[in-house]
Structures are given as structure tokens and as C-alpha cells.
Amino acid sequence: MTFSLVVRDGERFGIVASSSSPAVAARVAHLRPGVGAAASQNITDPTLGTSLLEGLADHGDAERALAGVTGAARNAKSIAYRQLTVVGRSGPGFAHSGTHTLGRYASATAEGAVAAGNMLCGEHIPGVLLDAYSAATGELEERLVIALKAAVAAGGEEGPVHSAGLAVVADVAWRVTDLRVDWADDPVDRLVELLAVWLPQRDDYVRRGLDPASAPSYGVPGDL
Question: How far apart are CA 34 and CA 155, in angstroms?
């Protein structure tokens, strides 16, 4: 149902994901500036993503944060149904895939990155995500979308995907990029189109939040 990539890029953290189910990014993507990023997928419990970030905020150790969530007594009856990934401020990414993860599933980790998926066409898909991201150039958002496109081209899920999303946090207290296609026949292509509109304006919107007097206006009625 879902494949995702979670990364650290300097002081930034990013997530990209796609799924056959609707509104994937609204449910699986969890990021906190200066702390880390996590994905909670496969029969999703979004509270687990929050718990992973709380662990990272407390001690900064991604492996320990994941162990704290998967080993918690309150999650004992359900953790076998969850697939989780997490990246902190240092070290590699870490992943958990419970024994009841749906269909063909897999994960792959690297320094500052982790990819995972379920209901996959093949176990190679997480590796494709990591390899394509590593080989890509450009802004973090662009590299994440390149990786997602590569995963879809390599087979992606067993069936067609219908939603996709991209989120990035940096050095302000909100998501500097938060793009979603919640239901479409071509969600990844639509996400690419959204990014092309958003990316040239991203930093201007950060300036609007920090210093509205110096931020540019786009000259439209009700300009926000």
C-alpha cells in the first residue's frame, strides 16, 4: 500500500511517499525541525510517528527511538502490523517491518536515509529509492521526487498508486515544503507539477513568516 523515503540533508529533513490508498502523506509523514523525521505506514497508526519524534527529541538516537516504540508495552498487540522508519540528526536510518506487514515488503538503510515499502512489486524498490536519491542533484525536494519517480518506474507497488506527498523541514518551525496529491490516477506526475510551481516561491514564503515587511508580494487580490 505504501513506499516511502525518509532522509537527512544537512540541517534539513525530508519525506516522500506514494500509495494506492488516499492521502498518504497526511497519514504517514512526520517531521520536526532540528530533531528528525519518521514514517509510520502499513495499517497506519500516526501516533507512532509522533512517538518516534518524541524519542528523538529526548535523546537524539534513532535506533533507540525505534526500539522504544516497537518495544513499548502499549504497542505490544499491534506492532506486528506496523512498518516504521526513522532518521535522526546523525547516523543511519532505521526501519521496522512487523510480521503482519502487507504483501511483499522490504526496507533499506544508508547514512542519513531509510526507505521502506509494503505491497511492493519486488523487494528491490527501497534500494531503488536510496540509489536514485543518492545519484540525484538539485534541491532536496527535487532529489526526493526523482527517487519517487525511479521507484514507480521500477515497478512500485503491485497495483496502481493514487496518492503521493512530499514534506521538508529546515531551520524554521514549520514545514517549508508540504505538497500532497491525495487522489489521482497519476499522483507522482501531479506532484512533480506542484513542485515546479512551489519551489521557486518556497524561500519567499519563509521570508513572509519571518519578516513580512521585506517579503515580496505576488500582486494578486488577497495576497497571502
Answer: 34
- Its pTM stands at 0.96
Partners of 92 in beta bridges: 111
Distance CA 75, CA 69 (A): 7
Task: Sort strands 83-87 and 36-41 into parallel, antiparallel or unpaired.
Answer: antiparallel
Q: Read off the pLDDT of each residue in 3-26 and give the average, rounded to a whole number.
A: 98
Residue in 178, 189, 107, 105 with CA at minimum distance from that of residue 153: 189
Residue with cell 495499517: 43
DSSP 74: G
**Number of residues that make up the chain:** 224
Please give the Cα distance from 39 to 60 (Å, whole number): 16
Question: CA distances (Å), 208 to each of 34, 201, 202, in order?
Answer: 21, 11, 10
Of 81, 92, 2, the closest CA to residue 39 belongs to: 2
Cβ 214 vs Cβ 154: under 8 Å? no
pLDDT digits (tens, 9 = 90+) for 173-212: 999 999 999 999 999 999 999 999 999 999 999 999 999 9
